[in-house]
C-alpha cells in the first residue's frame, strides 16, 4: 500500500491531532483543503485530484478495512473505468483542445497514474493481506530505513527553544516526544540567503524543509503562459518545503529570498527517521503495553491501534498530581516513562498514606473507561514522567461501549463491574 501512503500518512497525523467526530466529512474537507487549491502541471494531475475528492468515502472505507476480502469490491469498483479509459485514449489521439479548463464528465474517468497506483496496491494487498489504520506510516522509496545516525548542529539554547516552539505549532510535529523533538532541533542547519537567492525551485526534488528565522521569502508559481504568480510571503516563524518531504514529490512552487534572510533547514533523512521510523517503533511498544491491561486484553491489534489514534500524551514533573482522590474519573493512564506513587487518605492519619508504586509500563484509572466513579486514590509523579491518556468518551466514540468489549471475556467483565 506504499503507493497511497503519500496521502494516508499526513491524513493520519491530522486525524490523530484533531480527533474529528465525523471521520468521513473531515477526510473529505482535508483533501479539498490540501489538494483543492493547488495548481497542477498537467491534465492527469488535475483529474487525479478531482477523482480523489469525489471517491474519498469509498476509498476510505476500503483502505481502513484493508483486508483481502475487499479485493473483489475494489476491482469491481475500478474495472468499470477500463472501457471508458480506452475510449478516452482513442478520442484524445484524434482530437485536441487548447482550453485551459479540464472538463470531467459524470463517470470520472480514472486517470492513468491513479489506475496504475490502484493496480499495484491491489497486488500488494493480495500478497500481504495487511490492515491499515488512520495512523498508517509512510513506507515510500525515501523511507527505507537503514543504520541511521542523526546529524548534530549545536546551537545556543535560546535558538533551540525558538525552534522547538515553532515546530510544536505545526500539526505534523506537535505530538512528538521530547527526545524526538530534540533530535529534530539538533539536526536543523542554519542557512543564510542574500536577496534574490532561490531556496526552492519548482520541479526540483525536495530534500529539505525550512523554518524562517528572520527576513521574508516569496513563494511564486509559474503560470502556463510563462508569467509568475505570487502565492505567499513566508515571514519569521513560518515553515515551507514540507510538502515535498511528506508526499515524496517534486517541489510544487519556487521560493526565493526577498532580502538577506536566515532560515533553519531539516534534511529528509532525519525527517523520515523521526516521523515514520521512530513513530512506528514507539507505537509497537505502546501496543504491547495496551496488551498488558486486563480491561483491554480482548482487543485485537487493529482496535488497539485505534486507541493510540485517540490517546493524548501528558508529561508531569516531580510532585504533580496525575489523579486526585475523590475527583470524577474520566481518563485511563499508562505510565510510559518515569515513576509514580499512589496515596490514599485514612481517618487514622493526618497525611495521606502510600499504598502502591508505579513504574514504566504500569497503568491506573482503568475503571474510568466503564463509569465515571470518584477516584479511590491519588496518583503522584515521583520525578519526571510521561503518560498515555485515554478518555472514556473518546474510547466509546471510536470503539463503542467498553462493556460490549469486556463481554468477550466474561470473567474479566464480572471482575470490573463487581
From TrEMBL:
Give residues annotated as binding 3',5'-cyclic AMP 2: 366, 375
Keyword Isomerase (UniProt): no
Pfam family example for this protein? cNMP_binding
Annotated positions binding 3',5'-cyclic AMP 1: 242, 251
> Which SUPFAM superfamilies does its entry note?
cAMP-binding domain-like
Keyword annotations for this protein? cAMP, cAMP-binding, Nucleotide-binding, Phosphoprotein, Repeat
Its Gene Ontology cellular component terms are:
cAMP-dependent protein kinase complex; cytosol
Q: Is Repeat set as a keyword in this record?
A: yes
| MF terms in GO | cAMP binding; cAMP-dependent protein kinase inhibitor activity; protein kinase A catalytic subunit binding
Note the Gene3D superfamilies from the entry.
Jelly Rolls
Q: Give residue ranges for domain Cyclic nucleotide-binding.
A: 172-292, 295-416
Q: What protein family does this chain belong to? A: Belongs to the cAMP-dependent kinase regulatory chain family.
- What is the name of the protein in this document? Cyclic nucleotide-binding domain-containing protein
Could you tell me which species this protein originates from? Euplotes crassus
Q: What is the lineage of its organism?
A: Eukaryota, Sar, Alveolata, Ciliophora, Intramacronucleata
